[in-house]
Write a structure and sequence with these properties.
single chain, mainly beta, 20 strands, globular, disordered N terminus
Length: 250
């Protein structure tokens, strides 16, 4: 009966995996610096693309919440050698000024009132099939399990309408596109991560290829005592990098 609560701006991701030193038949998209070297502890800061903050939607109750702004910090590294190299890292995203009005209920995590904090990681992958060479970001709550609610996957938890209000959980992940970035393009110090939905609760992208293996990642949401259901995601994060980089094939 119920549509599940979900975040329309959430950055999430996968565990960092060290590639093997031996050559392999697959490739991954990776980040290199201006010298053509693998990036190491490449730092980035971020914020919501249009400065409009983040919207939270509760499809079950027709209830919406709004946060005034979003800020992010993180670090990316390219590890492994040869074609087995890959780029992944960690990020913390903080949504601030989450407010409550006559039509909106405040959603929050942690100890600070009106704030939602998510510690995540991020990985560069191929969107869809490797042969298509379309760039993607894998955004998944680590660790990501094959089945939500089985106790093996990581979760993001938050409440709406106060700390004793509606309890929500998010699990799994989604695949986003690196907006404005192209394979082998001129180096830059800024970029973005974008994911969109066409209709609730359909994700625009779920399939990706990493280390030669075609996989699928779905974002799940759970409201109170109800079961997990697929959740739609709309996300756009503007990134400023600490040095110029470009995306190439490993």
């Amino acid at each position: 009966m119920y549509r599940q609560t979900f975040l329309t701006l959430v950055a999430v991701c996968v565990m960092s995996v060290v590639g093997t030193a031996t050559a392999s038949a697959y490739t991954n998209p990776i980040l290199e610096n201006a010298k053509g070297e693998h990036v190491t502890k490449l730092k980035f800061t971020g914020h919501d693309q249009d400065g409009g903050g983040v919207a939270l939607e509760n499809k079950a109750l027709g209830d919406n919440g709004v946060c005034n702004s979003e800020e992010g910090t993180g670090e990316l590294s390219t590890t492994g050698t040869g074609s087995a190299a890959k780029t992944s890292g960690t990020a913390t995203f903080t949504f601030k000024g989450c407010k409550e009005t006559q039509e909106l209920s405040r959603c929050e995590t942690g100890e600070t009132s009106g704030e939602m904090v998510y510690k995540t990681s991020l990985s560069l992958v191929w969107l869809g099939k490797e042969s298509e060479e379309r760039l993607g970001w894998l955004a998944a709550i680590a660790p990501e399990s094959k089945k939500p609610g089985n106790g093996e996957g990581g979760k993001l938890k938050f409440t709406c309408a106060g700390k004793n209000g509606i309890k929500n959980e998010l699990e799994g992940g989604f695949v986003a596109t690196p907006g404005g970035w192209g394979l082998g393009e001129t180096t830059r110090t800024q970029g973005s991560i974008e994911a969109r939905i066409s209709e609730f609760p359909k994700q625009e992208f779920t399939k990706y290829t990493e280390e030669g293996v075609e996989q699928e990642s779905t974002f799940w949401s759970k409201l109170q005592t109800f079961a997990f259901e697929p959740a739609a995601t709309e996300f756009e994060q503007f990134m400023m990098l600490s040095e110029a980089v470009k995306i190439v094939k490993s």
